[in-house]
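Changelog-linked ticket: adenosine-5'-diphosphate example.
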Amino acid sequence: EVVVVGSVNADLVIGVRRRPAPGETVLGSDLATYPGGKGANQAVAAARLGGRVGILGRVGDDGHGALLRAALAGAGVDLSHLLVTEGPSGVALITVDPGGDNSIIVSPGANARLVPADVDRARPMLAAASVVSFQLEIPIETVEAAARAAADAGARVVLNLSPPAPLPDGLLALCDPLVVNEHEAAFLLGHRGGPADLAKELLGRGPRSVLITLGADGALVADAAGVTAVSSPKVEAVDTTGAGDAFTAALCLRLARGDDLADAARYAARVGAAAVRRPGAQSSYPDADEELPA
Ligand code: ADP
């Protein structure tokens, strides 16, 4: 019911007392290796919630690739279009300081080699999906080609503008919804503002609908019917890593099952809140039978 087209990364995390200056060496904690990447996170989150989920992506033929494949398989994601590239998988090199702040370098690796020709072979899977979800950690031409293929086959296109990058108008017009946080909204519009104003202005740029996530303050949904506010359940936030991916995955699943956008966003906010209660990204995602915060 949901297909995710996107990135698959190994997150390599080291705790440091402070970051090294140029030319300096510092010692850090043991290395921890976690499955990540926005695409894989979304696919795992939607599958954990009980969705039938496929992924179109690329990993390398290295050890990370095997780990990433296993994590997706463990969640029950269909891997028939998880392609293997000679060379390294995508990795995110993450240092975490004692204050909990992250510094991240992403090496796209195999993700950069997911090309429009790969979309052609995945057409049957895209055509069978109700909703196809995109983020921007793979080449934009591939996003464009797959979104066009999905829309032509009657699937609904959901696109998370993360990491922020300019979108071709033709791609923007397919988004239903365009999912952004406040930073991504400001990036696209070139200015900041109140969330309701940002939502209306984004809608004016051409997507079919807009969803702005506001962390603990919930989300705003904007479409032809107007702007609707959705609240976040009150939870103790332990780690927000990957919460946006859990939110978008839950949204896609409910849209695939026929919810309207506001109802899907209400459910997604509960799933996002569940994901911030536990550390990590994929490790924090709730199962279908877990009681969600309300
Ligand atoms: P991003 O992580 O992409 O910047 P947000 O910070 O808006 O996006 O978080 C995405 C979603 O995660 C929110 O819409 C909400 O559902 C959930 N979330 C994030 N932080 C909290 C929080 N402190 N309390 C409850 N839910 C949260």
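Closing comment: Example verified and attached. The mean pLDDT is 97. The chain has one domain: 2-8+37-89+108-284.
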